[in-house]
Write a structure and sequence with these properties.
12% of the residues lie in helices and 29% in strands. It has one helix and eight strands, in the order H-E-E-E-E-E-E-E-E.
Length: 135
């Protein structure tokens, strides 16, 4: 039985109310990341364990991840998913160099034993850059 003085709701008004309630419920702070503050920028990868393995993929003329953090002596595998050859070469000091990696091929190298940040490039395409951090 309707309340005294209550009016009948049109189906459109009821649908609008349901949609609004659903939208508001989705915005509630249920731990789903509904914060209005900006997301933090991605941080470098967590360190690989000593003697562990890490991976860099080359695809679309980009190193992924471009910032890799590893333990000293970690074996790093480089996978070339592009249709052209690339290298992953320390920018200074000849600390590591995969040599030319053909399309669809892989190469490996050991991270330096000394902690530090080691910028690297593709010597064939010098605009491709990344950083290997050893901790």
């Amino acid at each position: 039985m309707p309340f005294p003085g209550a009016r009948s709701r049109s189906p459109r008004a009821v649908l609008l109310a349901v949609v609004l309630v659903t939208m508001l419920a989705g915005c509630s702070g249920g731990g789903g990341g509904g914060s209005s503050s900006p997301s933090p920028s991605p941080s470098p990868s967590p360190p690989a364990s000593a003697g562990g393995a890490a991976r860099v993929t080359i695809d679309n003329f980009t190193f992924t991840p471009a910032a890799l953090t590893v333990a000293p002596g970690t074996e790093v595998t480089v996978v070339n998913k592009d249709s052209v050859a690339h290298t992953l070469t320390a920018a200074t000091g000849k600390v590591f160099d995969t040599g030319t990696i053909g399309p669809g091929k892989t190469a490996t190298f050991r991270a330096p034993g000394k902690a530090g940040a080691y910028p690297y490039v593709c010597t064939i395409h010098p605009f491709m850059k990344g950083t290997l951090t050893v901790r």
